[in-house]
Amino acid sequence: MNTVDHYIINQKTIMLTGEYDNFGNLFTKVIEGNHCLLVKQSPLKLISDTMHYYGHNLKGAIEGAQSILGKIQMCPIMVSSEQDICLFPHKSPMHADCIWFSYKHVIQARTEEGYTVVELSNGHFLKIKVRLYSFNHKKQNAGDLRRILQDRSKSTVALYFKPRKEYRLSKDSVMAKLGSK
Fold first, then answer.
1. What does the alpha-carbon distance between residue 117 and residue 127 come to, in Å, rounded to a whole number?
2. What is the pTM of this model?
3. Per-block average pLDDT, block size 10, for the chain (181 residues)?
4. Which of 4, 22, 58, 165 is paired with 178 by a 20 to 30 Å CA distance?
5. Residue 172 CB coordination number (10 Å)
6. Helix axis angle, 132-154 relative to 58-69, nearest 10°?
7. Residue 14, Cβ neighbours under 10 Å: how many?
8. Where are the beta strands (DSSP E) in the chain?
């Protein structure tokens, strides 16, 4: 597995999660297509740096998502509307082993022996200890956020203002007012 100092989440990023090295340093394991790499940053730092790269910030993304979806816990975040990158956590992001899934790379999920098995776009399956209902609810929230933001970015609003009074200035009236002083 390759180790890199920095990484920018992109359209090919399928998921990311925290992983400790032998010295107790928290890295981020990234799955991009069929490739896996280790980034020398925590998952939240990686997400934050990526959002800055795209001209956004993590705090604003969380606040924006909560203003759209309500004050939900473990809310999804739109990393980049332009790149169509929406991530959702499978459990609290405060846990190092939280997995952040890219919405469009989750094909389906099913239950199996008390686990949820997630099918990913690269053909791989991931077995996680979370209830299927909970996982699907988080995925649904991510889909709702993504759809609402896409709809808002496509719609145009035209505002027409009608002035209350009409003012007309002419050279003569301006000069007359200036001359009377």
1. 4
2. 0.83
3. 95 97 95 96 97 95 95 94 96 95 98 96 96 97 96 72 62 59 55
4. 165
5. 8
6. 100
7. 22
8. 2-4, 13-20, 26-32, 35-39, 77-80, 85-89, 99-102, 106-112, 115-120, 125-128
